[in-house]
Amino acid sequence: MARRQARFTAQDLADDPRWQDHSSDLWNKTLGDVPRALLTSAVRCFAANGFHATTTRDICEGVNLTAGALYVHFPSKELVLFEIIRAGHQRVLAYIRDLAAPASASSADQLRTIISRYTEWHARHHVAARVCQYELAGLTPQHYDEVLEIRHETNRVFRRVVARGVADGSFKQIDVKRVTRAMLSLSIDLGRWYRLEGSDSPEQLGEFYADLALAMVSHDAPVRGAVPALDGDAAARVRP
Amino acid sequence: MARRQARFTAQDLADDPRWQDHSSDLWNKTLGDVPRALLTSAVRCFAANGFHATTTRDICEGVNLTAGALYVHFPSKELVLFEIIRAGHQRVLAYIRDLAAPASASSADQLRTIISRYTEWHARHHVAARVCQYELAGLTPQHYDEVLEIRHETNRVFRRVVARGVADGSFKQIDVKRVTRAMLSLSIDLGRWYRLEGSDSPEQLGEFYADLALAMVSHDAPVRGAVPALDGDAAARVRP
DNA sequence: GTCTATATCCCGATAGAC
DNA sequence: GTCTATCGGGATATAGAC
Protein backbone atom coordinates (compact mmCIF):
# COMPACT_ATOMS: atom_id res chain seq x y z
CA MET A 1 0.00 0.00 0.00
CA ALA A 2 1.11 3.50 -0.73
CA ARG A 3 2.22 5.25 2.41
CA ARG A 4 0.94 8.64 1.47
CA GLN A 5 -1.31 9.91 -1.17
CA ALA A 6 -1.05 13.57 -1.83
CA ARG A 7 -4.28 14.18 -3.62
CA PHE A 8 -2.93 16.97 -5.78
CA THR A 9 0.45 17.41 -7.45
CA ALA A 10 2.18 20.78 -7.50
CA GLN A 11 1.49 20.99 -11.22
CA ASP A 12 -2.23 20.48 -10.68
CA LEU A 13 -2.30 23.10 -7.96
CA ALA A 14 -0.53 25.75 -10.02
CA ASP A 15 -3.43 25.74 -12.47
CA ASP A 16 -6.24 25.26 -9.96
CA PRO A 17 -8.17 28.45 -9.17
CA ARG A 18 -8.93 26.99 -5.74
CA TRP A 19 -5.33 27.57 -4.71
CA GLN A 20 -4.65 30.97 -6.20
CA ASP A 21 -3.97 33.87 -3.88
CA HIS A 22 -1.47 36.67 -3.32
CA SER A 23 0.88 34.79 -1.00
CA SER A 24 3.88 35.39 -3.26
CA ASP A 25 3.82 38.95 -1.88
CA LEU A 26 4.82 37.66 1.51
CA TRP A 27 8.35 36.40 1.02
CA ASN A 28 11.31 38.42 2.12
CA LYS A 29 12.66 40.34 -0.85
CA THR A 30 16.25 39.68 0.14
CA LEU A 31 15.64 36.08 -0.94
CA GLY A 32 16.45 35.09 -4.50
CA ASP A 33 13.96 34.19 -7.17
CA VAL A 34 14.32 30.45 -6.75
CA PRO A 35 13.76 30.25 -2.99
CA ARG A 36 10.78 32.58 -3.36
CA ALA A 37 9.35 30.35 -6.07
CA LEU A 38 9.93 27.34 -3.84
CA LEU A 39 7.99 29.00 -1.03
CA THR A 40 5.14 29.76 -3.38
CA SER A 41 5.04 26.17 -4.55
CA ALA A 42 5.33 24.88 -1.00
CA VAL A 43 2.54 27.03 0.37
CA ARG A 44 0.14 25.64 -2.20
CA CYS A 45 1.18 22.05 -1.55
CA PHE A 46 0.96 22.45 2.21
CA ALA A 47 -2.42 24.14 1.96
CA ALA A 48 -3.92 21.56 -0.37
CA ASN A 49 -2.41 18.34 0.95
CA GLY A 50 -0.98 19.18 4.35
CA PHE A 51 2.63 19.50 5.47
CA HIS A 52 3.27 15.83 6.13
CA ALA A 53 1.57 14.66 2.96
CA THR A 54 3.76 16.97 0.91
CA THR A 55 7.15 15.63 -0.18
CA THR A 56 10.19 17.69 -0.99
CA ARG A 57 9.83 16.33 -4.51
CA ASP A 58 6.32 17.77 -4.71
CA ILE A 59 7.58 21.21 -3.78
CA CYS A 60 10.45 21.11 -6.26
CA GLU A 61 8.32 19.78 -9.10
CA GLY A 62 6.19 22.89 -8.76
CA VAL A 63 9.13 24.96 -9.94
CA ASN A 64 10.58 22.35 -12.31
CA LEU A 65 13.48 21.34 -10.13
CA THR A 66 14.46 17.92 -8.80
CA ALA A 67 14.43 16.83 -5.21
CA GLY A 68 17.94 17.74 -4.13
CA ALA A 69 17.72 21.35 -5.26
CA LEU A 70 15.60 22.36 -2.30
CA TYR A 71 18.43 21.86 0.18
CA VAL A 72 20.62 24.47 -1.46
CA HIS A 73 18.08 27.07 -0.42
CA PHE A 74 16.57 25.65 2.77
CA PRO A 75 18.17 23.37 5.36
CA SER A 76 15.04 21.28 5.87
CA LYS A 77 11.42 20.89 4.90
CA GLU A 78 10.38 22.07 8.33
CA LEU A 79 12.22 25.32 7.78
CA VAL A 80 10.29 25.90 4.60
CA LEU A 81 7.13 25.58 6.64
CA PHE A 82 8.48 27.85 9.34
CA GLU A 83 9.48 30.48 6.82
CA ILE A 84 5.95 30.51 5.43
CA ILE A 85 4.24 30.64 8.81
CA ARG A 86 6.62 33.19 10.25
CA ALA A 87 6.26 35.47 7.25
CA GLY A 88 2.49 35.24 7.34
CA HIS A 89 2.26 36.02 11.03
CA GLN A 90 4.76 38.86 10.95
CA ARG A 91 3.16 40.50 7.93
CA VAL A 92 -0.32 40.50 9.34
CA LEU A 93 0.89 41.79 12.69
CA ALA A 94 2.82 44.63 11.11
CA TYR A 95 -0.20 45.43 8.96
CA ILE A 96 -2.74 45.71 11.75
CA ARG A 97 -0.30 47.44 14.10
CA ASP A 98 -0.07 50.30 11.64
CA LEU A 99 -3.85 50.45 11.41
CA ALA A 100 -4.33 50.50 15.17
CA ALA A 101 -1.81 53.30 15.57
CA PRO A 102 -3.87 56.45 14.79
CA ALA A 103 -5.50 56.88 18.18
CA SER A 104 -7.16 60.00 16.85
CA ALA A 105 -9.84 57.98 15.08
CA SER A 106 -12.97 57.10 17.01
CA SER A 107 -13.06 53.69 18.62
CA ALA A 108 -15.76 52.55 16.24
CA ASP A 109 -13.84 53.69 13.17
CA GLN A 110 -10.70 52.09 14.47
CA LEU A 111 -12.48 48.78 15.01
CA ARG A 112 -14.12 48.94 11.62
CA THR A 113 -10.82 49.60 9.90
CA ILE A 114 -8.81 46.96 11.66
CA ILE A 115 -11.42 44.22 11.27
CA SER A 116 -12.10 44.94 7.62
CA ARG A 117 -8.42 45.03 6.74
CA TYR A 118 -7.63 41.93 8.76
CA THR A 119 -10.41 40.13 6.95
CA GLU A 120 -9.27 41.38 3.55
CA TRP A 121 -5.75 40.23 4.31
CA HIS A 122 -6.94 36.73 5.13
CA ALA A 123 -9.04 36.58 2.00
CA ARG A 124 -6.29 37.81 -0.29
CA HIS A 125 -3.74 35.47 1.28
CA HIS A 126 -6.11 32.65 2.04
CA VAL A 127 -3.75 29.91 0.87
CA ALA A 128 -0.92 31.09 3.10
CA ALA A 129 -3.43 31.83 5.86
CA ARG A 130 -4.60 28.24 5.71
CA VAL A 131 -1.06 27.01 6.26
CA CYS A 132 -0.51 29.57 9.04
CA GLN A 133 -3.60 28.38 10.90
CA TYR A 134 -3.82 24.67 10.28
CA GLU A 135 -0.26 23.40 9.81
CA LEU A 136 1.22 24.62 13.08
CA ALA A 137 1.63 21.01 14.25
CA GLY A 138 4.33 20.53 11.64
CA LEU A 139 6.64 23.01 13.38
CA THR A 140 9.31 22.09 15.88
CA PRO A 141 8.42 23.07 19.46
CA GLN A 142 10.87 25.99 19.32
CA HIS A 143 9.47 27.38 16.10
CA TYR A 144 5.94 26.79 17.33
CA ASP A 145 6.62 28.87 20.43
CA GLU A 146 8.10 31.64 18.33
CA VAL A 147 4.95 31.79 16.21
CA LEU A 148 2.73 31.67 19.28
CA GLU A 149 4.39 34.79 20.61
CA ILE A 150 3.48 36.69 17.44
CA ARG A 151 -0.08 35.40 17.68
CA HIS A 152 -0.39 36.61 21.24
CA GLU A 153 0.85 40.03 20.27
CA THR A 154 -1.68 40.15 17.42
CA ASN A 155 -4.47 39.27 19.82
CA ARG A 156 -3.30 41.99 22.16
CA VAL A 157 -3.58 44.60 19.41
CA PHE A 158 -7.19 43.66 18.74
CA ARG A 159 -8.09 43.43 22.40
CA ARG A 160 -6.66 46.88 22.98
CA VAL A 161 -8.88 48.34 20.28
CA VAL A 162 -11.96 46.68 21.74
CA ALA A 163 -11.01 47.55 25.31
CA ARG A 164 -10.49 51.19 24.37
CA GLY A 165 -14.00 51.41 22.99
CA VAL A 166 -15.39 49.83 26.13
CA ALA A 167 -13.38 52.19 28.33
CA ASP A 168 -14.47 55.37 26.54
CA GLY A 169 -18.08 54.25 26.45
CA SER A 170 -18.28 53.87 22.68
CA PHE A 171 -18.94 50.16 23.13
CA LYS A 172 -21.10 48.47 25.67
CA GLN A 173 -19.75 46.48 28.58
CA ILE A 174 -18.65 43.15 27.17
CA ASP A 175 -16.23 40.37 27.86
CA VAL A 176 -13.40 41.81 25.76
CA LYS A 177 -11.56 38.53 25.38
CA ARG A 178 -14.58 36.54 24.32
CA VAL A 179 -15.91 39.10 21.91
CA THR A 180 -12.51 39.75 20.35
CA ARG A 181 -12.05 36.04 19.88
CA ALA A 182 -15.34 35.79 18.00
CA MET A 183 -14.34 38.67 15.72
CA LEU A 184 -11.02 37.08 14.83
CA SER A 185 -12.59 33.66 14.51
CA LEU A 186 -14.60 34.76 11.51
CA SER A 187 -11.58 36.09 9.66
CA ILE A 188 -9.31 33.20 10.52
CA ASP A 189 -11.86 30.68 9.33
CA LEU A 190 -11.58 32.14 5.83
CA GLY A 191 -8.51 29.98 5.28
CA ARG A 192 -10.77 26.96 5.46
CA TRP A 193 -13.29 27.88 2.81
CA TYR A 194 -12.47 31.11 0.94
CA ARG A 195 -11.59 31.24 -2.75
CA LEU A 196 -10.67 34.33 -4.70
CA GLU A 197 -12.79 33.11 -7.61
CA GLY A 198 -15.93 33.06 -5.44
CA SER A 199 -18.68 35.64 -5.31
CA ASP A 200 -17.35 37.55 -2.28
CA SER A 201 -14.46 39.92 -2.91
CA PRO A 202 -11.99 40.50 -0.06
CA GLU A 203 -13.35 44.04 0.26
CA GLN A 204 -16.97 42.93 0.50
CA LEU A 205 -16.17 40.38 3.16
CA GLY A 206 -14.10 42.92 5.02
CA GLU A 207 -17.07 45.28 5.13
CA PHE A 208 -19.46 42.53 6.16
CA TYR A 209 -17.29 41.28 8.99
CA ALA A 210 -16.60 44.82 10.19
CA ASP A 211 -20.37 45.33 10.39
CA LEU A 212 -20.64 42.17 12.43
CA ALA A 213 -17.85 43.26 14.74
CA LEU A 214 -19.56 46.58 15.37
CA ALA A 215 -22.83 44.81 16.05
CA MET A 216 -21.06 42.75 18.70
CA VAL A 217 -20.07 45.87 20.63
CA SER A 218 -22.85 48.28 19.77
CA HIS A 219 -25.07 49.57 22.58
CA ASP A 220 -28.30 49.27 20.63
CA ALA A 221 -27.63 45.91 19.02
CA PRO A 222 -29.41 42.86 20.44
CA VAL A 223 -26.14 41.06 21.09
CA ARG A 224 -25.37 40.04 24.62
CA GLY A 225 -22.27 38.21 25.78
CA ALA A 226 -21.72 40.92 28.33
CA VAL A 227 -19.95 40.53 31.60
CA PRO A 228 -22.80 40.24 34.10
CA ALA A 229 -21.85 42.71 36.82
CA LEU A 230 -18.26 43.83 36.59
CA ASP A 231 -18.98 47.52 36.25
CA GLY A 232 -22.06 48.73 38.00
CA ASP A 233 -22.42 52.13 36.39
CA ALA A 234 -21.90 50.81 32.89
CA ALA A 235 -25.63 50.94 32.25
CA ALA A 236 -25.66 54.65 33.03
CA ARG A 237 -23.20 55.41 30.27
CA VAL A 238 -24.42 56.86 27.03
CA ARG A 239 -22.80 56.74 23.68
CA PRO A 240 -20.76 59.89 22.98
CA MET B 1 16.84 12.94 10.12
CA ALA B 2 13.66 11.55 11.52
CA ARG B 3 10.95 11.40 8.93
CA ARG B 4 8.16 12.52 11.15
CA GLN B 5 7.96 13.91 14.55
CA ALA B 6 4.60 13.61 16.17
CA ARG B 7 4.84 16.19 18.88
CA PHE B 8 2.68 14.27 21.33
CA THR B 9 2.39 10.55 22.02
CA ALA B 10 -0.97 8.92 22.61
CA GLN B 11 -0.05 8.48 26.26
CA ASP B 12 0.66 12.19 26.64
CA LEU B 13 -2.60 13.08 24.99
CA ALA B 14 -4.71 10.82 27.16
CA ASP B 15 -3.71 12.86 30.21
CA ASP B 16 -3.69 16.28 28.57
CA PRO B 17 -6.79 18.38 29.33
CA ARG B 18 -6.27 20.11 25.98
CA TRP B 19 -7.49 16.99 24.21
CA GLN B 20 -10.36 15.92 26.40
CA ASP B 21 -13.85 16.00 24.98
CA HIS B 22 -16.92 13.80 24.59
CA SER B 23 -16.04 12.24 21.27
CA SER B 24 -16.26 8.71 22.67
CA ASP B 25 -20.04 9.22 22.49
CA LEU B 26 -19.87 9.27 18.73
CA TRP B 27 -18.90 5.75 17.79
CA ASN B 28 -21.43 3.28 16.57
CA LYS B 29 -22.57 1.14 19.46
CA THR B 30 -22.58 -2.01 17.36
CA LEU B 31 -18.79 -1.79 17.45
CA GLY B 32 -16.91 -3.64 20.18
CA ASP B 33 -15.06 -2.04 23.04
CA VAL B 34 -11.64 -2.32 21.44
CA PRO B 35 -12.46 -0.67 18.11
CA ARG B 36 -14.27 2.10 19.97
CA ALA B 37 -11.23 2.62 22.18
CA LEU B 38 -9.05 2.68 19.07
CA LEU B 39 -11.23 5.38 17.54
CA THR B 40 -11.01 7.42 20.72
CA SER B 41 -7.23 7.12 20.73
CA ALA B 42 -7.04 7.88 17.02
CA VAL B 43 -9.19 10.98 17.21
CA ARG B 44 -6.89 12.49 19.80
CA CYS B 45 -3.76 11.65 17.83
CA PHE B 46 -5.20 12.97 14.58
CA ALA B 47 -6.40 16.15 16.26
CA ALA B 48 -3.12 16.87 18.04
CA ASN B 49 -0.57 15.78 15.45
CA GLY B 50 -2.49 15.44 12.20
CA PHE B 51 -3.46 12.33 10.26
CA HIS B 52 -0.21 11.90 8.38
CA ALA B 53 1.97 12.53 11.43
CA THR B 54 0.12 9.83 13.34
CA THR B 55 1.34 6.27 12.96
CA THR B 56 -0.73 3.16 13.46
CA ARG B 57 1.64 2.41 16.32
CA ASP B 58 0.71 5.70 17.97
CA ILE B 59 -2.98 4.86 17.82
CA CYS B 60 -2.47 1.39 19.27
CA GLU B 61 -0.19 2.57 22.04
CA GLY B 62 -3.03 4.75 23.25
CA VAL B 63 -4.96 1.62 24.14
CA ASN B 64 -1.95 -0.51 25.12
CA LEU B 65 -1.93 -2.63 22.02
CA THR B 66 0.83 -3.24 19.52
CA ALA B 67 0.87 -2.19 15.90
CA GLY B 68 -0.66 -5.22 14.25
CA ALA B 69 -3.78 -5.25 16.42
CA LEU B 70 -5.34 -2.34 14.58
CA TYR B 71 -5.86 -4.33 11.40
CA VAL B 72 -8.09 -6.86 13.09
CA HIS B 73 -10.61 -4.06 13.60
CA PHE B 74 -9.99 -1.72 10.70
CA PRO B 75 -8.73 -2.53 7.21
CA SER B 76 -6.54 0.59 6.98
CA LYS B 77 -5.51 3.77 8.74
CA GLU B 78 -7.51 5.78 6.26
CA LEU B 79 -10.64 3.90 7.23
CA VAL B 80 -10.10 4.81 10.86
CA LEU B 81 -10.06 8.44 9.77
CA PHE B 82 -13.11 7.97 7.61
CA GLU B 83 -15.02 6.29 10.43
CA ILE B 84 -14.29 9.27 12.69
CA ILE B 85 -15.20 11.90 10.11
CA ARG B 86 -18.29 10.08 8.90
CA ALA B 87 -19.57 9.56 12.44
CA GLY B 88 -19.01 13.19 13.34
CA HIS B 89 -20.76 14.52 10.28
CA GLN B 90 -23.70 12.13 10.51
CA ARG B 91 -24.27 12.78 14.20
CA VAL B 92 -24.31 16.53 13.88
CA LEU B 93 -26.61 16.37 10.87
CA ALA B 94 -29.08 14.09 12.64
CA TYR B 95 -28.92 16.36 15.68
CA ILE B 96 -29.74 19.61 13.93
CA ARG B 97 -32.29 17.98 11.62
CA ASP B 98 -34.35 17.07 14.66
CA LEU B 99 -34.06 20.61 15.98
CA ALA B 100 -35.12 22.20 12.72
CA ALA B 101 -38.15 19.93 12.47
CA PRO B 102 -40.74 21.69 14.70
CA ALA B 103 -41.95 24.26 12.21
CA SER B 104 -44.37 25.51 14.83
CA ALA B 105 -41.65 27.51 16.58
CA SER B 106 -41.06 31.05 15.44
CA SER B 107 -38.27 31.58 12.95
CA ALA B 108 -36.24 33.44 15.56
CA ASP B 109 -36.62 30.70 18.17
CA GLN B 110 -35.79 28.07 15.61
CA LEU B 111 -32.62 29.90 14.62
CA ARG B 112 -31.65 30.47 18.22
CA THR B 113 -32.11 26.80 19.06
CA ILE B 114 -30.30 25.37 16.08
CA ILE B 115 -27.32 27.71 16.37
CA SER B 116 -26.88 27.29 20.10
CA ARG B 117 -27.09 23.52 19.88
CA TYR B 118 -24.79 23.32 16.89
CA THR B 119 -22.28 25.42 18.78
CA GLU B 120 -22.61 23.33 21.94
CA TRP B 121 -22.07 20.19 19.90
CA HIS B 122 -18.86 21.55 18.44
CA ALA B 123 -17.62 22.61 21.86
CA ARG B 124 -18.41 19.32 23.53
CA HIS B 125 -16.87 17.33 20.67
CA HIS B 126 -14.16 19.79 19.79
CA VAL B 127 -11.45 17.15 19.38
CA ALA B 128 -13.51 15.13 16.92
CA ALA B 129 -14.73 18.35 15.33
CA ARG B 130 -11.15 19.39 14.71
CA VAL B 131 -10.49 16.16 12.82
CA CYS B 132 -13.77 16.50 10.92
CA GLN B 133 -12.87 19.99 9.74
CA TYR B 134 -9.12 19.97 9.24
CA GLU B 135 -8.14 16.42 8.29
CA LEU B 136 -10.37 15.99 5.27
CA ALA B 137 -7.31 15.91 3.01
CA GLY B 138 -6.38 12.53 4.48
CA LEU B 139 -9.47 10.89 3.00
CA THR B 140 -9.57 9.05 -0.32
CA PRO B 141 -11.43 10.98 -3.02
CA GLN B 142 -14.42 8.64 -2.70
CA HIS B 143 -14.69 9.05 1.05
CA TYR B 144 -14.13 12.77 0.73
CA ASP B 145 -17.05 13.07 -1.66
CA GLU B 146 -19.25 11.07 0.67
CA VAL B 147 -18.48 13.44 3.52
CA LEU B 148 -19.00 16.47 1.32
CA GLU B 149 -22.52 15.31 0.58
CA ILE B 150 -23.36 15.26 4.30
CA ARG B 151 -21.84 18.72 4.70
CA HIS B 152 -23.96 20.09 1.90
CA GLU B 153 -27.09 18.65 3.47
CA THR B 154 -26.13 20.23 6.80
CA ASN B 155 -25.68 23.59 5.12
CA ARG B 156 -29.07 23.19 3.48
CA VAL B 157 -30.75 22.67 6.85
CA PHE B 158 -29.31 25.92 8.19
CA ARG B 159 -30.04 27.85 5.05
CA ARG B 160 -33.63 26.70 5.14
CA VAL B 161 -34.05 28.04 8.68
CA VAL B 162 -32.57 31.39 7.71
CA ALA B 163 -34.50 31.56 4.45
CA ARG B 164 -37.77 30.84 6.27
CA GLY B 165 -37.22 33.78 8.58
CA VAL B 166 -36.48 36.02 5.63
CA ALA B 167 -39.55 34.80 3.76
CA ASP B 168 -41.95 35.34 6.65
CA GLY B 169 -40.51 38.75 7.43
CA SER B 170 -39.04 37.80 10.80
CA PHE B 171 -35.59 38.50 9.46
CA LYS B 172 -34.47 41.31 7.25
CA GLN B 173 -33.53 40.89 3.61
CA ILE B 174 -30.07 39.37 3.59
CA ASP B 175 -27.85 37.23 1.43
CA VAL B 176 -28.92 33.92 2.99
CA LYS B 177 -25.86 32.02 1.82
CA ARG B 178 -23.37 34.56 3.04
CA VAL B 179 -24.99 35.13 6.41
CA THR B 180 -25.50 31.42 7.06
CA ARG B 181 -21.87 30.82 6.23
CA ALA B 182 -20.78 33.39 8.80
CA MET B 183 -22.97 31.78 11.47
CA LEU B 184 -21.54 28.31 10.85
CA SER B 185 -18.04 29.70 10.55
CA LEU B 186 -18.02 30.73 14.19
CA SER B 187 -19.07 27.30 15.44
CA ILE B 188 -16.80 25.36 13.13
CA ASP B 189 -13.79 27.41 14.19
CA LEU B 190 -14.22 26.12 17.74
CA GLY B 191 -12.32 23.00 16.71
CA ARG B 192 -9.27 25.17 16.28
CA TRP B 193 -9.13 26.81 19.69
CA TYR B 194 -11.76 25.52 22.11
CA ARG B 195 -10.92 23.59 25.28
CA LEU B 196 -13.41 22.14 27.73
CA GLU B 197 -11.21 23.29 30.61
CA GLY B 198 -11.46 26.93 29.50
CA SER B 199 -13.70 29.60 30.93
CA ASP B 200 -16.51 29.27 28.38
CA SER B 201 -18.88 26.36 28.85
CA PRO B 202 -20.48 24.86 25.75
CA GLU B 203 -23.81 26.27 26.88
CA GLN B 204 -22.46 29.80 27.35
CA LEU B 205 -20.86 29.79 23.94
CA GLY B 206 -24.02 28.40 22.41
CA GLU B 207 -26.01 31.30 23.87
CA PHE B 208 -23.44 33.85 22.79
CA TYR B 209 -23.27 32.62 19.21
CA ALA B 210 -27.06 32.36 19.00
CA ASP B 211 -27.22 36.02 20.02
CA LEU B 212 -24.76 36.84 17.29
CA ALA B 213 -26.74 34.88 14.73
CA LEU B 214 -29.91 36.75 15.63
CA ALA B 215 -28.08 40.05 15.41
CA MET B 216 -27.06 39.13 11.87
CA VAL B 217 -30.67 38.80 10.77
CA SER B 218 -32.46 41.24 13.06
CA HIS B 219 -34.26 44.19 11.52
CA ASP B 220 -33.09 46.71 14.08
CA ALA B 221 -29.48 45.55 14.37
CA PRO B 222 -26.81 47.62 12.65
CA VAL B 223 -25.59 44.67 10.64
CA ARG B 224 -25.68 44.99 6.91
CA GLY B 225 -24.55 42.35 4.43
CA ALA B 226 -27.92 42.64 2.75
CA VAL B 227 -28.67 41.90 -0.85
CA PRO B 228 -28.74 45.37 -2.44
CA ALA B 229 -31.96 45.43 -4.45
CA LEU B 230 -33.47 42.00 -4.82
CA ASP B 231 -36.75 42.75 -3.14
CA GLY B 232 -38.01 46.28 -3.47
CA ASP B 233 -40.73 46.23 -0.85
CA ALA B 234 -38.57 44.60 1.80
CA ALA B 235 -38.03 47.93 3.48
CA ALA B 236 -41.76 48.34 3.91
CA ARG B 237 -42.06 45.16 5.95
CA VAL B 238 -42.43 45.34 9.65
CA ARG B 239 -41.61 42.70 12.15
CA PRO B 240 -44.69 40.63 13.05
C1' DG C 1 23.15 25.53 -8.43
C1' DT C 2 21.25 21.63 -10.21
C1' DC C 3 21.62 17.01 -11.28
C1' DT C 4 21.70 11.71 -10.20
C1' DA C 5 22.42 8.33 -6.95
C1' DT C 6 22.15 6.75 -2.55
C1' DA C 7 22.35 6.34 2.66
C1' DT C 8 19.30 5.80 6.34
C1' DC C 9 15.22 5.46 8.48
C1' DC C 10 10.63 4.15 9.52
C1' DC C 11 5.86 3.63 8.06
C1' DG C 12 1.64 0.82 6.57
C1' DA C 13 0.33 -3.54 6.16
C1' DT C 14 0.88 -8.72 6.41
C1' DA C 15 2.26 -13.50 8.09
C1' DG C 16 2.23 -16.85 11.31
C1' DA C 17 2.81 -18.32 16.26
C1' DC C 18 0.11 -18.59 20.31
C1' DG D 1 -7.41 -11.27 19.06
C1' DT D 2 -2.99 -10.02 20.11
C1' DC D 3 1.67 -10.78 19.68
C1' DT D 4 6.45 -10.57 17.18
C1' DA D 5 8.80 -10.24 13.03
C1' DT D 6 9.18 -8.62 8.64
C1' DC D 7 8.26 -7.15 3.76
C1' DG D 8 8.02 -3.55 0.56
C1' DG D 9 8.16 1.04 -0.30
C1' DG D 10 8.96 5.72 -0.06
C1' DA D 11 10.39 9.57 2.77
C1' DT D 12 14.21 13.16 4.19
C1' DA D 13 18.52 14.43 3.57
C1' DT D 14 23.38 13.98 1.71
C1' DA D 15 27.39 13.08 -1.60
C1' DG D 16 29.68 13.96 -5.52
C1' DA D 17 29.67 14.82 -10.65
C1' DC D 18 28.97 18.51 -13.79
Characterise the protein shown here.
The structure is a homodimer of 240-residue chains. Chain A is built from 11 helices and no strands. Chain A has 240 residues and is mainly alpha-helical. Chain A has 2 domains: 10-73, Orthogonal Bundle (Arc Repressor Mutant, subunit A), CATH 1.10.10; 82-232, Orthogonal Bundle (Tetracycline Repressor, domain 2). The longest helix of chain A has 27 residues, at 141-167. The interface between A and B is large, with 43 and 42 residues. Chain A binds a DNA duplex (18 and 18 nucleotides) through α4. Chains A, B: Keywords: DNA-binding. Chains A, B: InterPro entries: DNA-bd_HTH_TetR-type_CS, Homeodomain-like_sf, HTH-type_TetR-like_transc_reg, HTH_TetR, KstR2_TetR_C, Tet_transcr_reg_TetR-rel_C_sf. Chains A, B: Residues 32-92 form the HTH tetR-type domain.
Calculate the terminal CA-CA distance of chain A, rounded to whole Å: 67 Å
State which percent range the strand residues of chain A make up.
Answer: under 5%
Annotated CATH architecture of the largest domain in chain A: Orthogonal Bundle
**What gyration radius of chain A follows from the Cα positions, in whole Å?**
20 Å
Describe this structure in a few short sentences.
2 copies of one chain form a homodimer. Chain A is an all-alpha fold and 240 residues long. Helix content of chain A is 60%, strand content 0%.
Notable traits:
homodimer; 240 residues; mainly alpha; Arc Repressor Mutant, subunit A; transcription cis-regulatory region binding (chains A, B); DNA-bd_HTH_TetR-type_CS (chains A, B); TetR family transcriptional regulator (chains A, B); KstR2_TetR_C (chains A, B)
